[in-house]
Amino acid sequence: MGRRADEEDAAAADPETTAAVAAELDAAAPWGAALLDEVRAVLVRYVVLPTPEDADAVALFILATHCQPAWEHATRLVVKSPVKRCGKTRLMEVVGALCHRALQTTNISPAALVRSIDETDPPTILLDEADTVFAKRRGERSEGAEDLRGILNSGHSRGWPYIRWDAQRRRAESCPTFAMAILGGIGDLPDTVEDRAVVVNMRRRAPGEGVAPWRTKRALPPLHALRERLAEWAQFHTPQLEDADPDLPVEDRSADVWESLVAVADAAGGNWPERARRACRALTGAAEPDEATLGERLLSDLRKVFGFDDDEAFPKVERLTTAAILDALGGFDEAPWADWYGRALTARDLARLLRPYGVRSRNLKQPDGSVAKGYLAADLADPWRRYVPVPGDPPLRALPPLPDGESPYAATPEAGSAPVALDDSEAATGGSLVPQQVPGTVAAVAAVVAQRSERVEPDPNADSLDRAARLIADAFPAVDEEAP
After folding, report:
1. 76-104 pLDDT, tens digit each
2. Within this chain, do residues 139 and 24 fall inside the same structural domain, yes or no?
3. What is the dihedral of CA 92, 94, 97, 103, to 10 degrees?
């Protein structure tokens, strides 16, 4: 320990020297890998984890908490179980003894939580029984629970503070929220929390699965000594981890969650880089079915109802009335549609769930001449391919390569967008937008919109453009498709 202490003193003022010393020590022996092995051994000594990958992920999370200044995203560890007595709280106790600056937050207020987070040296937040904190009462969460959820969500990314009002100084105060966290609870936690987390699904010990008894006085001293060695490793390696860009087997939000864990595995060496990526693939793959939102579940079920899922029970159709859709959804086993908050899904519920995906109901003409509300498969095709794709779906049109300096999201002629300009006579007063050089059919539709906004009826004796507008207006009467 004397050699390492001397090197630590020599490197304290120079990050480059610190990184060089860390590389020298790792070359002599991968002591990061040995530390992770010790942490994992402690975990399985006191807790029965569901899989080896779960044990590896928790060990990596613990080491990553000691390197928080290096991360752009503060990973959450969610430990949940279906019932009591599954080892959830014991796992949180072990993690709390080993992680960096454990902050117990049971019954803490949102204001007290943000005041406890140091921007330069953030703690590791521990929130047990999170299911009771986020539980809905009379269909809604408490104001404090929503504030806490907002803090946890914003604290996942560096640079997203919590804004609170200082009543004494009468001004807004920006409070840092960036901190890694571990949350435990029975059942699911809010989707936005689990989406930013490594999720460990605990289960009750089976007969024959034994663990060592947990005695605080006896267990904590060696765990705290191990924690100090983890902190020592982090002090040497954090400078190099700030520039880490590990190759990850996942993308998007999952990559944000796993980047820090894979980075410390790469720095630790040994066989941990391979184990970290194996755990990443296993846990993200296992979590995908549970991560589907209600909207995604609805899109998937609608794909079956319209017959676009190769299910022989549903012939392929291009349009369906709302009544027929609701009747079909109600027959899906293990789906929430037949018992939607104590009642069957309604037309208004269906419209509200589909609205974020840009899908709205239409007036469908029936064989008997009547008109009924319904939906078109063509309107659902784009959300199906984006959110619930299946093999064989035609690819969406890729953006063409653009010259340097031009936004990849700028409108292009291939996109079919019409040039728009402000009329000179109305530009000064914020007048209406007037299409220029627009094809006749599009211009007719624009004329209908303009006439309705001004409450003006089209003149049957006007020129061909107005007559076209009148025909379109008659063919598609103005209706409020979905009441709020």
Report:
1. 999 999 888 899 999 999 999 999 999 99
2. yes
3. 0
